Each structure stands twice: as C-alpha cells, then as structure tokens.
C-alpha cells in the first residue's frame, strides 16, 4: 500500500507512522510533502530515508493553483492512501474529491465535537469530562468526514490546554498508525454508509 504523507510542522504523528512500518505492515510511506520548507517533519522523513518534497503555498496566489501543484506531485507516487498529519491548509473541493476514500486526517478532538482550531482550550472551557482525538476520512466538510477511530481520555483535575495537548498527542501517535495499517490491510474503507472496519459500519 503506497502512502504519501502531507505535513506542515513538527511531524510527531509522521514519526509514529514511520516507526510503525515494518515487514508485517503492508503500508509503505513513499513520500512526505510539506507546504512549509522549514517543517521539522521533513528532517524526520529524510532521516528515515523517505523522499521529501516541498510545495510552498506562499508561491501560489490562489488555493486552486497550490492544490493543482500538490496533486501533480502526489500523483507521481501513485498513492493508495494520502495521510494528512498536521497539514495546516484547507484543501479545495477538487482536491478532496480526487482522493475521496483514500484520504485520512487526524483531528485533536472527539468529533463531531470541536471542529476547527483550538480544540483543547475549547473542551476545557466547556468542562468536558472527556476529550481525545479522531482519525477520519476527509470529505468536503471541514473536519466533518466519517470517523474511523477515536481515542478517549478523561480530563484530569487541574488540566491545562498544554497538558491536554501532550496527553492527546500520545493517543494520536497510537491510533494513527493503527488506522494506516487497517487501511493498508484492506480492513478499513469508506462506504456509502460511512467508515467500515472488517465489514462493520463504524
Ligand atoms: C496534531 O495535533 C493533529 O491532531 C493536528 O495537527 C497536529 C500535528 O502535530 N491535525 P504533529 O506535526 O504530528 O506533531
């Protein structure tokens, strides 16, 4: 299963995906693409011997042109799966349509709660007893696609946005490799009725 990973920053999720590769895992990360040349994740990829590419969004006046350049590079790797791992650009409908069913994202909340940014602070402000993260198939609705897997953690007394961020990250690093493997093994897919694992609707 050929995988292309898109990043914008640190790439700690990318690292977890890289570390999960192995002989018994059919997922193979063929390339890592960043919209920011300085993204640390590019160094992580290079250290793992994975090809890296940069498509700098600042070089494009229009979102459509940026996405077109991105798609051309992605398609050069003939990916079965495209993974967004902290990729901080909103994608055009044309991009999402092209990869529907083979495009995954991770979001730091228990979707459908807290789409968008600043999720940890918002969950705390609402006194949520639980918080977490979700891997979901990407659809045209921002952070709105069918959820494939979630991790739930209790919000501890005295919790801050920082402590919550760190604890949710640990869970992200656990569930994203899981979802990549399930997809690569043909166990996870997007159907008419939503995400399916081993033939069951999630
Ligand atoms: C993660 O919190 C992820 O949920 C969000 O962006 C962050 C990426 O972190 N979409 P990293 O670059 O993988 O460290």
From TrEMBL:
CDD domains: FMT_core_GART. This is Phosphoribosylglycinamide formyltransferase. It comes from Stutzerimonas azotifigens. The active site is at 107 (proton donor). (6R)-10-formyltetrahydrofolate binds at residues 63, 88-91, 105. It catalyses: N(1)-(5-phospho-beta-D-ribosyl)glycinamide + (6R)-10-formyltetrahydrofolate = N(2)-formyl-N(1)-(5-phospho-beta-D-ribosyl)glycinamide + (6S)-5,6,7,8-tetrahydrofolate + H(+). The record marks 143 as: Raises pKa of active site His. Gene3D superfamilies: Formyl transferase, N-terminal domain. It holds the Pfam family Formyl_trans_N. Coiled coil: none annotated. GO terms for molecular function: phosphoribosylglycinamide formyltransferase activity. Its EC number is 2.1.2.2. Signal peptide: none annotated.
